[in-house]
């Protein structure tokens, strides 16, 4: 089933953080705690699916027929900001327990490159509607896997002494490189 | 003391500071995504760096010029609107003037919008300072960012293809494919960070020793 | 009081958005002009590859008379009925971005005459090698009556070419673009065959 292939490809073999370098800022900053990482990953997954689908509809139902595709960037980022804002309000009011888990990350997400990038790639690759759902879900989920794995790895840093001049960001980047190497091993999986 | 607004020491100090000690990538760790993705070729790295610098300067200029008119509640939306407009402009200009580079950079040009540096400079500086200073502040940030991209692009293209700007410099060079693919980019960035921090530390100790009172 | 503030904020946004949209439309207009110019140049190249001379003055009339153009999304199909040849200008997704191809075919014999990669941004040294002449030469005279396969495991059937080693995804993407383009072109031809 090609939808499953899309999910697997975007989550694992072409992981959005480790192959396309997207979402690096929060990847480095928030992977310090496992809880934070999982929360952020969840937030990103939810937001990315909602916004990519919304952007898909906006692009093909409004921008293309009116031949104003060049306004895509502005429209997309506005939709993303709007959805994130609404989500924040809804979660805070109706699902307060969830708010504690991932609500705090929502304001940070608007400028997270992952969200906008998935929409841009979706247009570039001309996915169908369900392909878009599969792709956005796979990307968000893959990002979540990467950041939680990273948080798990960083816990072990407490027992080691990395090169001082690397700093926090530096060692995270090295770890990301090692993870990317590992994920390369998945390449032939979906041949 | 004769002072023209731009040459005044504070603005210039900010300019220099943004390039080095508050370098957007090494210190603030902002905008790392594009720096890894587009640096496989030095030419692409240069164009990306200059594009970011351009968008930074122009949006800071505009925001600073109208800073007294922007209503408080829609501040962030206005920033996003202005930044996205100029990013689209840069994208169109690149498609017209440099179509090959534009295709190479692909969606990463659009991702300049989410480059945290842009919102950061707008919020931290441009909204409160006169245009001349804001442009200088943005220029410094942009140049610091471009510097990192150039360093990475230089290393990656040289190691992976033995060339710079497409001109083959090392004949018969066995390409280090690691420099081309994702893990290599991470490792190279980490190595550059190490060097940067080493230099920073040396500078600090030099300043500290210079300040010590002379022992008699 | 509060309503007035919100109203002025809204007014500001509307004005700003309008200004931005006007500015962008203007810039986009410039781009569209350049794009049209480039398309004309490509058509001249196609005309010459079909074996004709390009006469600057009459080209804009001659070309549409002899070549029927069909567009489907990002793909354009130029059919030169006089010699049973066609040029397929295909664009499709690769690993990092779009791969743009210009493929000349002889549709009576179902063979590919020539393949050009107009643009791609695949990994340098790996996927990017699809632009190398040695790789593209494989497509000359290739029979596409089955489907075209770009693979490392050659079974000796017709329609196969060697893939670039280490570039499985790019090879797969390229194969998909070629086959989809050929399929679409065949469906156009089939529709015309029906009276």
Please tell me about this protein's structure.
The complex is a heterotrimer of chains A (191), B (216) and C (195). With 191 residues, chain A is mainly alpha-helical. Chain A has helices at 2-13, 24-30, 34-63, 72-94, 96-102, 106-109, 113-125, 129-156, 167-184. Chain A is globular and about 60 Å long. Chain B has 216 residues and is an all-alpha fold. Helices cover 70% and strands 2% of the residues of chain B. Chain B has a two-stranded antiparallel sheet. In chain B, strand 1 and strand 2 form a beta hairpin. Chain B is flat, with a radius of gyration of 19 Å. Residues 1-6 of chain B have low confidence and may be disordered. With 195 residues, chain C is an alpha+beta fold. Chain C is built from four helices and eight strands; from the N terminus they run ααβββββαβββα. Chain C has helices at 2-49, 59-66, 133-137, 168-193; strands spanning 67-72, 75-80, 85-93, 98-106, 111-119, 142-143, 149-151, 160-162. The A-B interface holds A 18-25, 28-29, 70-74, 77-78, 81, 111-113, 115-117, 120-121, 124, 163-167, 169-171, 173-174, 176-178, 180-181, 184 and B 26, 29-34, 36-37, 76-77, 80-81, 84-85, 87-88, 91-92, 106-107, 110-111, 113-116, 119, 181-187, 189-190, 193-195, 197-198, 201.
> What sequence of helices (H) and strands (E) makes up the elements of chain C?
HHEEEEEHEEEH
Rg calculated over all Cα atoms of chain B: 19 Å
- The overall strand count of chain C is 8
Question: What's the gyration radius of chain C in Å?
Answer: 22 Å
Tell me the distance between the termini of chain C. Answer: 72 Å
Q: Sheet bearing the most strands of chain C, described?
A: 6 strands, antiparallel
User: How many distinct helices of chain B?
Assistant: 10
As residue ranges, the low-confidence spans of chain C are none
Question: Could you give the order of strands across the largest sheet of chain B?
Answer: 1-2
Number of domain units of chain B: 1
| Shape, principal axes of CA atoms of chain B | flat
The termini of chain B sit apart by 37 Å
Into which percent range does the helicity of residues of chain B fall?
A: 55-70%
Strand arrangement, major sheet of chain C? 1-2-3-4-5-6
Low-confidence stretches of chain B: 1-6
* Biggest interface between chains: A-B, 43 and 43 residues
| Strand content range of chain C | 15-25%
